[in-house]
TrEMBL record:
GO terms for molecular function: 4 iron, 4 sulfur cluster binding; metal ion binding; uracil DNA N-glycosylase activity. Pfam families: UDG (PF03167). Residues 37-189 form the Uracil-DNA glycosylase-like domain. Its EC number is 3.2.2.27. This is Type-4 uracil-DNA glycosylase.
Amino acid sequence: MINEKERALKAIKDEILGLVSSPLYKERIKNKYFPVIGEGNHSAWIMFIGEAPGENEAKTGRPFCGRAGKVLDELLVSAGIERKDVYVTNIVKDRPPGNRDPLPDEIEIYAPFLDRQIEIIKPKVIATLGRFSMQYVMSRYGLEFELDSISKLHGKVFTTDKFKVAPLYHPAAAIYNQHLLDTLKEDFKVLKNL
Ligand code: URA
């Protein structure tokens, strides 16, 4: 039987599927892509928030299933966290063309869906992956005065009245950078201890 949570998450999916007002909608149709809504445990203690789907993600409709996803999986394993226990999503739910950064307008269109996902899943910890989700989550949830560059904030933990926020580097940045991968592994240990 479908419960309230499932119903609310399904409503988000349906709205995004019909989001013709998004400038990324026509890209979705043109390329036969899927929107990437989010995936994982609907009562997860921790939610990971990336930037926007890459090509593999848009082709499958699944978040972090390509090369950056392999790095994320490796980081989860290294911290002893199981992917089935977490929820993984992005701010922007459709793929920006050519892997470019999401534009402010696009973040504005999709962020309310992310806010609703947070409200439904109620994670105790939000781990932001990369600077876009860090900037959005921290400014949206009362941590705007703490904002700084990701090189200063990664691995720290901030507290809001709803959840803790742990800004992390984006796993894609560690694909060819062993030093950054080691840093991410250290930062993931912090998550496990929360
Ligand atoms: N990068 C992201 O930010 N999100 C994904 O889902 C995949 C790659």
